[in-house]
Inverse folding.
């Protein structure tokens, strides 16, 4: 039975980290909310999943992965679950924990990138928090983005198996998430990320290698990849790029 | 060999979620940065751990747990590692993943509580972002805090093993983290959290039970428990409590 991914249909968002893992592994999955309501899919199916009163382990929010009877939310927890099944993580507990630690740190970077356009709160429009957003974005561009990218560069530089992957000598879900983080930063902050990435050549090179992985490349060319837009986590507001 | 916990010595912060797990299990540990520099501890030892150039798996930030040769960062990853070792999580993969999913959701709530006093950025003082903080706190009080507490109430209400614990019929690290979240919200937002917690009696009752667990109670009375203060995640700024 294919995996079911439940995520908002119009954006990459946090669901994209799960999509990339499923796509890179060639795993069969249904992107439920993007299907037709007449086929029992679409947003109604997503809402039913979120609001299912019979679920004794209810998700707080999307993304949600359904694998048979299992219903798993929280991006990092989904990747923790999928990693071994999709062969996107090493076999040892130590490698799995380190890969997860990197994922959680990338998730922090993603949260902080989101915070640049919604520093006051997610329930308000960007237009209602623009002055706050300009200040938050300046902090992110000058302090946080270089720090996160610099840490990823160090992780690559110190990997005893070489700097082609974050963990060991094989592709992991952390590599895929690094790709998505860089892709998002380049979209949202083309100028600031360009400056920062000049100092992290290993990060940039890994981003390129992931983009060229056969299945990832096919996915990125397909209609399954939703283009970046100003409803997602990474938004191109030129006034926030300094 | 006792575990080593590395965290900033003056605040509970994210380190507290790890401390509570170690304390509730009665596990031997050293709170490194709170020791004496003359004994090879204190903040110099913490900084050495963070900056150790020979570490091929460097932490991005505190808290860091050292267990022999293993160096693990990210609060949720540390708890994922400690859970089985401290018997603070169920034995099955399903229970472990669900406990982790709850932990990650509590971590999101903690991040958003922190954001109320630092919406623009962590590198600036609260005093330099007060207008932004007032708006962010209003959002948090009215929207996010009730939503997170309501979800935890639902998790308790739907637990097939009863509403005394978040997962199964035994204490898990998620219960301890719920305790800390409630404790922090009550400190930072005494009025708003009072209103919200009236609607979540199961959350409140679990908070009380955790506080009365023998080892936790002894810890809370001890000097090892750092009092809340205005350098931590949960800060009492009356103007942010509505």
């Amino acid at each position: 039975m294919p995996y079911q991914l439940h995520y908002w249909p119009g954006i990459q968002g946090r669901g994209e980290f799960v999509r990339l893992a499923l796509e890179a592994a060639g795993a069969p999955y249904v992107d439920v909310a993007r299907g037709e309501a007449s086929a029992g899919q679409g947003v109604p199916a997503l809402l039913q999943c979120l609001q299912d009163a019979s679920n004794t382990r209810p998700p707080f929010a999307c993304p949600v992965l359904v694998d048979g009877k299992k219903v798993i939310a929280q991006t990092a927890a989904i990747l923790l679950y999928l990693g071994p099944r999709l062969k996107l993580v090493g076999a040892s507990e130590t490698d799995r924990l380190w890969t997860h630690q990197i994922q959680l740190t990338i998730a922090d970077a993603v949260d902080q990138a989101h915070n640049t356009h919604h520093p006051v709160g997610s329930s308000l429009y960007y237009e209602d928090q623009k002055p706050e957003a300009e200040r938050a974005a300046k902090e992110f561009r000058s302090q946080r983005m270089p720090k996160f990218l610099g840490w990823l560069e160090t992780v690559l530089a110190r990997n005893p198996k070489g700097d082609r992957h974050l963990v060991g000598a094989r592709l992991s879900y952390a590599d895929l998430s690094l790709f998505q983080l860089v892709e998002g930063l380049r979209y949202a902050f083309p100028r600031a990320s360009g400056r920062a990435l000049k100092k992290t050549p290993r990060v940039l090179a890994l981003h390129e290698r992931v983009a060229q992985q056969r299945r990832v490349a096919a996915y990125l060319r397909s209609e399954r990849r939703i283009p970046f837009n100003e409803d997602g986590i990474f938004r191109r507001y030129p006034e926030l790029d300094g």
About this structure: The CA atoms of residues 120 and 129 of chain A lie 7 Å apart. Chain A has nine helices and four strands. The two ends of chain A are 48 Å apart (CA to CA).
